[in-house]
Specification:
Layout: H1 4-23, H2 33-43, H3 50-54, H4 58-66, H5 73-85, H6 89-94
């Protein structure tokens, strides 16, 4: 027979697991420079020209392409989504 203290300890352990699960973010796969360049190529965008479509500065797009700055998560997600559902460069501009 379990005692009240054992049940309380089990409850507390389950609460801790639940709290940890709520705060756990799904790991994000960073976009590599090669992936970034390939995505732009498939969409028919130049490195500098893509800035307008992605909402970043021309210099930032160059940093992504050169690998001097990691590709921002929203930019990477937008590019991956665009490729997956078949958006065009004009569609990106309209977003």
């Amino acid at each position: 027979m379990t005692t009240y203290d054992e049940l309380k300890a089990e409850r507390d352990a389950l609460r801790a697991q639940l709290a940890k699960a709520r705060n756990h973010k799904k790991p994000y796969d960073e976009m590599t420079t090669a992936e970034y360049r390939a995505a732009l190529n498939k969409l028919g965008l130049s490195i500098v020209g893509s800035a307008e479509h992605l909402g970043v500065s021309h210099r930032q797009s160059q940093r992504y392409a050169n690998g001097t700055a990691p590709v921002a998560a929203p930019v990477a997600k937008l590019l991956r989504l665009a490729l997956r559902i078949g958006l065009t460069a004009d569609d990106l501009r309209a977003i």
